[in-house]
Amino acid sequence: MNTIYTASITKEKKSNQIILCSSVDELSSLSSEEKKYVSEQIENKNNPAHINKLSYNLFIYKIDTSDNENLVWEKARISASGVCGTINKLKLKDVSISGSVDKGVLTAFAEGLGLSNYQFLKYFSDADERRNSLETININGLTENELNDLNAVVSSTLVARDFVNEPLSYLTAEQYAHDILELGEDAGFSVDVFNKTKIQALKMGGLLAVNLGSPNPPTFSILEWKPENATNSKPFVLVGKGVVYDTGGVSLKPTANSMDYMKCDMGGSATVVGAMAAISKAKLPIHVIGLIPATENRPGGNAYVPGDVIYMHNGMTVEVLNTDAEGRMILADALSYARKYDPELVIDVATLTGSAARAIGDKAIVSMGNASQKVQDKLIESGYRTYERLAQFPFWDEYQEDLKSNVADLKNLGGPEAGMITAGKFLEYFTQDTETKKGYPYIHLDIAGPAYNHAKKNYRGIEGTGVGVRTLFDFFKNI
Ligand code: BES
Ligand code: ZN
Ligand code: ZN
Predict the structure, then answer these.
(1) I need a surface site. Which of 56, 66, 357, 389 has the fewest CB within 10 A?
(2) Full-prediction pTM beyond 0.70?
(3) What confidence tens digit (pLDDT) does each residue in 176-217 have?
(4) Ligand 1: does its nearest atom lie under 6 Å from the Cβ of 324?
(5) What is the pLDDT of residues 294-320, one digit of tens each?
(6) Which ligand is closest in space to the CA of residue 322?
């Protein structure tokens, strides 16, 4: 694993101060002149206002109490990313966050600061000169447990970003599995990696078909967190798309420059790995399993081609009509494998379709599923709290019509419309018993839009965002 260059969040008091308040007048430590200056700055949208106290720096951030709570928190995270820039420009090493406001706002501000301070410097020769000065963030008023949870979720989101940011020249499927093993030792979850021979023995035809065009073998990693005090008897299962690079295969990607960022196509699995790390670091009392099918999608050698019919892990046959619809081929086998756990709920996360990104852009996660609406609403609520918002799409059986093949049980390509939904409906087949059609409760998250930023976007950063880690962690914390 490469090092994560972010600040750790501690209880130790530091000299530089960020004070959060709902009114500047309430700050008794400021002189009336300072209050006037701060109020003017904030009115001019310089919120937080900055005062150089010579021996230390003071930032005053005023929250708008008229906003709803989720937006108050999000504004705190965003404004923390602005402060992060100033702190590093001033070469400050540490900062303390305090104030007579709700714990949630303080936490959100610290979270935003921790996430904003992330850098991916591994490949720069002058990494040391580029490294941010900020090393420690102090936060007042949290319990040991709250602090631990905050550190767990921030550091694990950054682990997910690291994985997305790693190019194929480093992160092959085998390297990925190896790094997940190392992370598991550190975070506390166990890892079992299936190699190609084992994958062949399990007849994971979808994963093997996608892998055919690549010189590097596939892997299938199983991550597990099973504490003694788990409150669920049936496990939760998270499944993540681990396409370490997507060329489209022989149906080579048609969109100009879209291959430039296809190292991000394992983003769904990075979210699952990050969520598993956060859950186990925070020692949440739930039994969770993560499944990661991983491979490149390449047009080389013996690559699968349109027209091929593939025998999948669950025994169904799939006619391939576009090799660029590879995510569903490898996820289908993982979802079918998940049935052996008799899970309480399965959530998959994937950079699955361009249509999801076109429909809602980078502002939200496309969600759909057949789990009870109550459960789906829980996840949607978590998405509002973390501001990784979910937009729920329909999951009606009528969309299955687009998946009918002339020669096989299904084709891997839907019609020209609603591509994100036909992809989800394709996956649903593999969550069910092929005979009884009974399956486990299922939620599908398509993160093709928000997984990767082409330009820096506040605390969400540039390139890999680690989207979904905070939402899944919040969901499992509140279950
Ligand atoms: N990895 C892509 C989807 C994607 C697009 C991820 C943009 C991130 C950003 C996926 O494998 C893909 O190519 N999907 C095709 C499916 C189509 C051929 C049915 C798509 O969406 O165009
Ligand atoms: Zn593809
Ligand atoms: Zn893909």
Answers:
(1) 66
(2) yes
(3) 999 999 999 999 999 999 999 999 999 999 999 999 999 999
(4) yes
(5) 999 999 999 999 999 999 999 999 999
(6) 1
Pocket test for ligand 1, best of 352, 360, 402, 467 (most atoms within 8 A of CB): 352
Is the distance from the beta carbon of residue 353 to the nearest atom of ligand 1 less than 6 Å? yes
- What six digits make up the tokens of 386? 């973390």
Determine the residue type at 365: I
Does the beta carbon of 351 sit less than 6 angstroms from any atom of ligand 1? yes
Which residue's alpha carbon is nearest to atom 7 within ligand 1?
Answer: 354
Going by C-alpha positions, the residue among 156, 128, 174 that lies closest to residue 464 is: 156
Contacts (Cβ under 8 Å, ≥6 apart) of 227:
283, 284, 285, 286, 287
What is the whole-number distance in angstroms between the Cα of residue 343 and the centre of ligand 3?
26
| Active site residue ranges | 253, 328
- Of all protein residues, the one whose alpha carbon is nearest to atom 5 of ligand 1 is 354
User: pLDDT tens, 12-68?
Assistant: 666 899 999 999 999 998 999 999 999 999 999 999 999 999 889 999 999 988 889
Backbone angles phi, psi at 276, to 5 degrees: -60, -40
In this structure, are strands 288-297 and 365-369 parallel, antiparallel, or unpaired?
unpaired
pLDDT at 5 over 50: no
107 lines ligand 1 (CB under 6 A): no
The atom number, within ligand 1, closest to the CA of 264 reads: 8
Encoded amino acid at 436, one letter: T
Which structure tokens are listed for 105?
């706002």
- What is the C-alpha to C-alpha distance for residues 334 and 336, in angstroms, rounded to an integer? 5
Pairing, β 8-10 against β 136-139: parallel
Residues 2, 464: contact at Cβ < 8 Å? no
